[in-house]
Amino acid sequence: ERIIKHYAGSRDNEYVNMTETPWNGVKKYYNRSGYMDKVRFSDGRVEHYMLYPNGRSLIHTKDLPNGTIIRYAFPDRRMPTLLNAKRKMLLPNGNIYEYKGGLNREYLAKVRFASGNVNEFEGNKGEERMVKTTFVNGGVREYKGNRGEEYKVKERFANGMVYEYRGNRGEERLYRAEFPDGRIHHYEGPKGSERVAWEETPDGQWIER
Q1: Angle at CA of residue 188, ends 183 and 190, nearest 5°
Q2: Taking the mean position of all CA atoms in its chain, how far away is CA 142?
């Protein structure tokens, strides 16, 4: 396999700053110390590397042809399983995906949308379930249930209102509402047809409706 080497530097101080492999179009870039800091692929991918304290040149950012940017964790010598773990993916539409976990075990922890809303997740890789959405207007929605079956259980609004729900995904019905003034409404009926059955007053009285 033929390799083409490119040099930089003054006379008698030359160093290889790029190598090309014509058969696959891969170009590797090196700094003056001889460590690789970038790889450019023929499909448009670009990988960026850094020299870490463990003496290895490891990837820290990957640029994809569609504009997506993937960022990786900086390795910690005390936590070797975190070497090169994916940490963040920035999409062209402005959405940002954040990850936690060790190498090859990264799980989705949070999605920040360009709109300002944020979804939070829990669970191992491939089993992530949404547990909370924080809206740009200050509201918060909480969920329970396995991945793909998450159902709404509570909503908190910026004005102090709190709604609680019961029922499986798509069938959540309002059964309790807390008002900023301390009143609590208890509801009966299926989703879309809920009615107030009882009102609980701030002083503890129950009033049938």
Answers
A1: 130
A2: 17
> CB–CB of 167/191 below 8 Å?
yes
pLDDT of 82 above 60 = no
Tell me which residue has tokens 């990264």: 106
Q: Which tokens in the block code for residue 185?
A: 């409404």
Write the burial class of residue 44 (CB in 10 Å: 0-12 exposed, 13-18 middle, 19+ buried).
exposed
In the prediction, which pLDDT does 75 show? 65
Decide: pTM greater than 0.90. no
Nearest Cα neighbor of 126 from 144, 104, 153 is 104
Return the H-helix or E-strand segment holding 207.
strand 206-208
Given the structure tokens 């160093």, which residue do they identify?
15
Dihedral sign from CA coordinates of 179, 181, 186, 187: negative
- Whole-angstrom Cα distance, residue 73 to residue 87? 6
Residue with structure tokens 């669970």? 123
Is residue 143 exposed (0-12), middle (13-18) or buried (19+ Cβ within 10 Å)? buried
Instruction: Determine contact, residues 158/137, Cβ cutoff 8 Å.
Output: yes
Measured between alpha carbons, how far is residue 18 from residues 1, 6, 15, 112 in Å? Answer: 16, 5, 9, 37
Q: How far is residue 176's CA from residue 188's CA, in Å, rounded to a whole number?
A: 9
Lowest mean pLDDT among 7-21, 76-90, 104-118: 76-90
- Taking residue 74's Cβ as centre, other Cβ atoms within 10 Å add up to 15
